[in-house]
Amino acid sequence: MADDYGYINARVKMMRGSLLENRQLDEAVSAATYAEYLRVLSETPIREDLGDATAQGAGLGELDAALSKNLFRVVRKVQGLASGEAKKEVDTLVARWDLLNIKTLVRGVLTGRSSQDILAGLIPAGTIKWGVLQAAANSTDLASLAQTLSIGGGFLGRALRQAVSSGTNELLDVEVTLDQEYYRAALSAARGNNLRRYLAREVDVRNILTALQLRGGTVSARYFVPGGSLSEGDFLRIAGGDNAVSNSDLQPLLEAGSLDRAEVLSRLLLDQAAKNVAMTDVLGAGVVLDFLRRKEIEIAKLRLIGRGKFYGVPGDSIRQELGNA
What is the protein's known function (predicted)? Predict the structure, then answer.
């Protein structure tokens, strides 16, 4: 383990060579059958974790388990490379999956979804142990969920517990509270300006998407997440219907025409921002940030392609979905 990004990034760049190339993803999309899709995967670095996915009678459940295992193993390997202050930064980046998983749990419990459905939406790559997430998925209400995550759910689990104890029970209120806590911790842990700028960009994107979501309804500053370049006043102005923003990179999100399209553009914007950080932050956390993001996207694409092949969706339709993913 090292507190030196020169060593960590050299190892991560070697791991980047194991990511699937566009050629391999296209070959998976072009597979004539689901079995052929699995054969394509068996010729990639994913094969190490395929396990029961290739057994006779196996289906999407086994594929999901295999892809989750691969993501979990790769993320843990990256975490294992760092120590000291560098590990704090890497762990904060990995905790982003804790944020997503707790939001999935909250959304699932508030909408009455089954524990099985909730578990299917979780990503086994954060810092919270899978057993804790499994127990949380069995919660019957928000209070019991918060109680379960207050032990073993890390700083976000404790933030959820505090929010629920103070009477917060609406989905958007809970999600914004978790975002505020995550970005406060992430910006505090970030040592370099490049990583701080990337996190600030994520905050800006989050605030714009929330502001667009609030249009036509109740607008409140309590939904604003500090830490980005946009001010609370900008947030309220955009939520009120104003489409002007001083940062030209963010302008396309306000001109997207729909929230769905704005979310697609947001992902593309953050993908490019992560790549830029990786190129300019060669002795900082940028390379790790970009690699983890690329790995998550790879696994998401393989899940989507696998479902398409399993249900016989034409390759062109899958390619279109990948473009919108």
Answer: Produces ATP from ADP in the presence of a proton gradient across the membrane.
